[in-house]
């Protein structure tokens, strides 16, 4: 007996360690932290936060932003990391463990991660295209290309700006509206393929390769941001831009939209509800201080947003200053030509005096030439967010700097690495649940599975390479990457608080970290975060529902060109806009229904088959 | 007396005619120079000598354009000079000083040699303007291979090498693991079998004591309801 028992325990121990080894794990804590930070810190930190900060009264915006971080961001982040670390499975396994009726939440997470990965990598393909073109001298978006007769520039470019022309015509070759599909753009397909190859190369063995790649992709953006910070502060007009960014306008705090935008910005910025964070922490050893990790990741994400906005706005201030001087020069030229004033008599300092003098003495001349006084503030307020900031505004600013190729290359590599580390999170949100579902036969190596995921994503993302692709990307961006995430996060926190129980959760955390979550976490999880999520979700839906479903089209034949044309979505496109968020959200009630049907089925079969050991005495 | 008036007339007539030809302005072009804008502190003074240089460079342009007719400074007539520095010029034919060279010929001549004229004055297309003669823009550079394709090739090549090397290392790792599996014998196989068979119950053992035994806790929930 003894010998047999020993043999049994030996086998059990060996299988234990074997199973523990079978789940991949991080090489060290730094990899895990850098991956979470890389996932949270993405393109939005660079091109959405500075825009919001400037629009909503600069320094004053930091108040709702930090309140949202404390009340909504950190508690949800801590909850996701803790639950992944505790239950050691991806998003589907985690919610399935808490309650089988919640299997839909995990599926919804996986679907949203997949859809977001599709369009996010297309943005990276565009970044790659710009990176490849930054090696030309002069930069291709610096001057308008000449028309065939060599006497003037191309009309479309003359009416707008070279940077606009390069983005809309030479890169996207955009069609005038979403109905016109146009053909596929070959160069974009090549860049998309390259982007997916690079992602595959880093993602090929899951966290084994991600953990190595993250050292570069997470740290490099900070290096480049610091270089830009130092360089931008030396440019003229930089202080103007920074003043414009941070000068607080306390009036904006009265507008509820500011609070809504702050809450949504924090939520989307931390990449919650994707399932990626749960996946990453599931590879941790169970005895790990996830509280410190959560606070660290959340604070570093917000710090990066603020840190990135300084060089961005310094450079935008420089651009505004340069445009202002150019405007003055062109006005001076017009006057000098028409009124025969000796050149260099009008300088920048005397410009305003001359303009007012001219306006009073010769108003017809001013009207005839459509001269509006050059206003520095108007130039400063010409900010943009999203792809407009990166590919139009910033590229224009870069052409005015000395050594523009270097800055362009650095900027686009920074954007690429920022986006790449966020892609890892999305793809892990797809891969880990798939592996945990055990539907993939063990014969298929992980490399093949990741390759298949990348291939399928690339094929579907080819729609973004059509001439109307940018319009479709905007649809995906606004409809998929917003409402479903809020819904999933709400169900997540309800699952933990109501179904699992905060007390049980706190016990688990005490076992993992050695410390019970304190009063702040308890209050946030039980009351404030769910309430805040619900309010934000309802407010967001109401605000979006009130907006007309229109999009901005680039139509050279439009009357107001170069202003974008506001076009309504055709009905078939609008149906897709509604379908895209509806599909992941519907997976949640469908999951409940499926389990209920399973239960009924089991109940009826149990009743019909007699009990095997039913002994009646 | 009559001789003197006739001689005086002959002397002044060309200049009178010249001024008339120039002032008629139909075949003339207005020229605008912005020397101070272009050169700033190093701007030179516009005087008679500079005008002489202008007229001679224009005569040079006309000579090169026609390639046979010998234009001279006297064929370039200037009027309407202003302090801004702008003036109007016309070109007369070398054979007949009363005949003007038509506008389009002058325009083509200027366009072909604008660069030389600009360089003579250290100016550029923007600062030495011929009103009505648009400057020839630089022809777009055509590449045999697009420059972005070259960088693309480098990037894709590096990534492909990386992927292939990773896949090779995976295959060698698997082959080594398979060899080790064959060597260690039957015990390993038995354990493999147990692991695959009861995956759920054993994976949960390493966590807390019996709380997450999925196989059992799931059943409990079903039967309760």
UniProtKB/TrEMBL annotation, chain A:
InterPro entries: Na/ntran_symport, Neutral_aa_SLC6, SNS_sf
The protein's name: Transporter
Listed transmembrane segments: 32-50, 56-78, 99-132, 187-207, 219-242, 262-283, 295-316, 406-427, 448-473, 479-502, 523-543, 572-597
Species, as recorded: Triplophysa rosa
GO molecular function: metal ion binding; symporter activity
Keywords: Glycoprotein, Membrane, Metal-binding, Sodium, Symport, Transmembrane, Transmembrane helix, Transport
Topology versus the membrane: Multi-pass membrane protein
Family: Belongs to the sodium:neurotransmitter symporter (SNF) (TC 2.A.22) family.
GO biological process: amino acid transport; sodium ion transmembrane transport
Binding site for Na(+): 38, 40-41, 45, 269, 301, 418, 422
Compartment list: Membrane
TrEMBL record, chain B:
Location of this chain's protein in the cell: Cell membrane
Pfam families xrefs: Collectrin
Entry keyword annotation includes Transmembrane helix: yes
UniProt domain Collectrin-like: residue ranges: 25-225
Region annotation Disordered: where it falls in the sequence: 178-198
Main location: membrane
One annotated Gene Ontology cellular component of this protein: plasma membrane
Membrane topology: Single-pass type I membrane protein
UniProtKB keywords: Cell membrane, Glycoprotein, Membrane, Phosphoprotein, Signal, Transmembrane, Transmembrane helix
Residue intervals passing through the bilayer: 148-168
First and last residue of the signal peptide: 1-18
GO BP, sorted A to Z: positive regulation of amino acid transport
InterPro entries (alphabetical): Collectrin (IPR042944), Collectrin_dom (IPR031588)
Descriptive protein name: Collectrin
Species, as recorded: Triplophysa rosa (Cave loach)
């Amino acid at each position: 007996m003894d010998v047999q028992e020993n043999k049994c325990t030996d086998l059990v121990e060996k299988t234990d360690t074997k199973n523990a080894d079978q789940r991949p794990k991080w090489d060290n804590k730094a990899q895990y932290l850098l991956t979470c930070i890389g996932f949270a810190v993405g393109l939005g930190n660079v091109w959405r936060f500075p825009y919001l900060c400037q629009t909503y009264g600069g320094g004053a915006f930091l108040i709702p932003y930090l309140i949202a971080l404390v009340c909504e961001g950190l508690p949800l982040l801590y909850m996701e990391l803790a639950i992944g670390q505790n239950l050691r499975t991806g998003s589907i396994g985690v919610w399935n463990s808490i309650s089988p009726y919640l299997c839909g939440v995990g599926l919804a997470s996986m679907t949203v991660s997949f859809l977001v990965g599709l369009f996010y990598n297309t943005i990276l393909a565009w970044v790659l295209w710009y990176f490849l073109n930054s090696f030309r001298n002069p930069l291709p978006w610096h001057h308008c290309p000449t028309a065939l007769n060599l006497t003037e520039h191309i009309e479309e470019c003359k009416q707008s700006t070279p940077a606009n022309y390069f983005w809309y015509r030479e890169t996207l070759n955009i069609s005038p509206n979403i109905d016109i599909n146009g053909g596929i753009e070959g160069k974009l397909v090549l860049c998309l393929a390259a982007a997916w190859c690079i992602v595959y190369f880093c993602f090929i063995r899951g966290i084994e390769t991600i953990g190595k790649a993250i050292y570069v992709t997470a740290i490099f953006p900070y290096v480049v941001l610091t270089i830009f910070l130092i360089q931008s502060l030396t440019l003229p007009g930089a202080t103007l831009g920074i003043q414009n960014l941070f000068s607080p306008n306390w009036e904006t705090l009265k507008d509820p939209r500011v609070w809504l935008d702050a809450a949504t910005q924090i939520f989307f910025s931390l990449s919650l509800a994707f399932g990626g964070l749960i996946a990453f922490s599931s590879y941790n050893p169970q005895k790990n201080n996830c509280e410190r990790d959560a606070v660290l990741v959340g604070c570093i994400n917000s710090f990066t947003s603020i840190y990135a906005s300084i060089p961005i706005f310094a450079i935008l201030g420089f651009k505004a200053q340069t445009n202002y001087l150019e405007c003055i020069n062109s006005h001076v030229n017009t006057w000098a030509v028409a009124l025969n004033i000796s050149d260099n008599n009008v300088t920048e300092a005397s410009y305003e005096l001359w303009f007012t003098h001219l306006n009073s003495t010769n108003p017809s001349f001013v009207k005839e030439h459509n001269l509006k006084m050059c206003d520095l503030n108007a130039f400063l307020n010409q900010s943009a967010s999203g792809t407009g900031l990166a590919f139009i505004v910033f590229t224009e600013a870069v052409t005015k700097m000395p050594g523009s190729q270097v800055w362009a290359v650095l900027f686009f590599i920074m954007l690429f690495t920022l986006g790449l580390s966020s892609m890892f999170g999305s793809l892990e949100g797809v891969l880990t649940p798939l592996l945990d579902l055990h539907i993939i036969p063990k014969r298929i190596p992980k490399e093949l599975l990741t390759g298949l995921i990348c291939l399928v994503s690339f094929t579907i993302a080819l729609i973004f390479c059509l001439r109307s692709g940018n319009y479709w990307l905007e649809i995906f961006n606004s409809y998929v990457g917003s409402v479903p995430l809020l819904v999933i996060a709400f169900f997540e926190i309800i699952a933990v608080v109501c179904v699992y129980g905060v007390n049980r959760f706190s016990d688990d955390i005490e076992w993992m970290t050695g410390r019970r979550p304190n009063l702040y976490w308890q209050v946030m999880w039980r009351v404030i975060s769910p309430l805040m999520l619900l309010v934000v979700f309802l407010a967001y839906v109401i605000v979006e529902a009130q907006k007309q479903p229109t999009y901005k089209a680039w139509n050279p034949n439009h009357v107001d060109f170069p202003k974008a044309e506001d076009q309504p979505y055709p009905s078939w496109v609008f149906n897709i806009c509604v379908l895209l968020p509806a599909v992941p959200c519907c997976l949640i009630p469908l999951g409940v229904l499926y389990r209920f049907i399973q239960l009924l089925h089991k109940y009826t079969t149990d009743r019909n088959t007699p009990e095997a050991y039913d002994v009646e005495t | 007396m009559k001789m003197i008036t006739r001689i005086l007339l002959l002397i002044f007539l060309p200049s009178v005619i010249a001024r008339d030809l120039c002032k008629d302005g139909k075949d003339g072009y207005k020229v605008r120079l912005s020397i101070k804008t272009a050169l700033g502190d190093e701007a030179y003074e516009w005087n008679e000598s500079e005008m002489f240089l202008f007229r001679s460079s224009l005569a040079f342009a006309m000579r090169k354009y026609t390639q046979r007719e010998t234009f001279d400074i006297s064929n370039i007539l200037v009027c309407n000079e202003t302090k801004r520095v702008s003036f109007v010029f016309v070109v007369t034919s070398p054979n007949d000083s009363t005949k003007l060279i038509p506008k389009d010929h002058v325009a083509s001549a200027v366009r072909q040699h604008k660069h030389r004229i600009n360089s003579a004055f250290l100016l550029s297309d923007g600062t030495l303007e011929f009103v009505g003669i648009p400057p020839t823009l630089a022809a777009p550079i055509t590449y045999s291979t697009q420059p972005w394709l070259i960088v693309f090739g480098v990037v894709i090549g590096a990534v492909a090498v990386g992927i292939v090397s990773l896949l090779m290392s995976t295959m060698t790792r698997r082959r080594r693991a398979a060899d080790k599996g064959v060597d260690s014998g039957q015990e390993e196989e038995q354990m493999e079998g147990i692991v695959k068979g009861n995956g759920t119950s054993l994976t949960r053992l390493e966590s807390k004591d019996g709380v997450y035994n999925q196989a059992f806790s799931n059943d409990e929930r079903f039967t309760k309801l």
